[in-house]
Amino acid sequence: MAREMPGYFFFFGGYEFTKSLMIKHGGQSEELGLLKTTIAGGIGGICLWTSIFPFDVVKSRIQIQSSKESMNKVLITILRQEGIKGLYNGLTPTLLRTFPSTGALFVAYEYSKVYMTKTLQD
């Protein structure tokens, strides 16, 4: 819950906010085109991972170590031993991976939505 709910808030919020910045005044989101939709999706993915990464690091440490310790205790241990940087260890490759993948995800979503809407109207 601590990871997924805020993460998806930032995922869709980042996507929609970025789209709103790129839409011409009075325009529709369907008019953005492939490149701008990809960029908005990529930024949404970056917002997601940046917001949840500390929780993901804690979850991964618990899984790797087969730990029975609480999430809070593992979090405090990481902070004491590695500092805040320890909670973001590995973020750069994750962001490099997420930008094209979430960009493609939102392109597929938007174009599928347009296609299905047109198909159902015909």
From TrEMBL:
Keywords: Membrane, Mitochondrion, Repeat, Transmembrane, Transmembrane helix, Transport. Transmembrane segments: none annotated. Pfam families: Mito_carr. Solcar repeats lie at residues 32-115. GO terms for cellular component: mitochondrial membrane. GO terms for molecular function: L-ornithine transmembrane transporter activity. It is a multi-pass membrane protein. One of its GO terms (biological process) is mitochondrial L-ornithine transmembrane transport. InterPro entries: MCP_dom_sf, MCP_transmembrane, Mitochondrial_Carrier. Its main location: mitochondrion. Signal peptide: none annotated. It is found in: Mitochondrion membrane. Belongs to the mitochondrial carrier (TC 2.A.29) family. This is Uncharacterized protein. It comes from Euroglyphus maynei (Mayne's house dust mite).
